[in-house]
Amino acid sequence: MSAGGSGAAAEAIPQNKIIAFGVAGGLIGIYAAYFLVDMVGQYMSFIGALGAICGMIWGAAAVRRVASYGLGTGVPSIGMLALGMGVVAATFGLAVGGIVGPVIALITAAIIGLMIGVIANKILNMGIPIMEISMTEIATAGTITILGLAIAMTGTFDFDVVLPQVITTGYIAVIFIAGGLAILHPFNANLGPDEKQDRTLMCALEKGAIAMVVAGIVATVNAGASGALTILIGLALWYIGFSGYYARVKRDAYVVVGTGMLPTKEELE
Amino acid sequence: MIDIAGILMENILYVILITLGGVLISWSVHFVPVGGAPAAMAQATGIGTGTVQLAAGAGLTGLVTAGAMMQISDSMALVLASGAAGAMIMMSVTMIVGTWVYAYGVGCPPASAKVKYDPITKDRQDLYVSQGTEGHGLPTVSFVSGVIGGALGGIGGSLVYYALMSIDNGLALPELVGIASVFAVGIFFVNAVIPSYNIGGTIEGFHDPKFKRWPKAVIASFIATFFCALVGVLAIGGL
Question: In terms of pTM, does the model score above 0.80?
Answer without folding.
Answer: yes
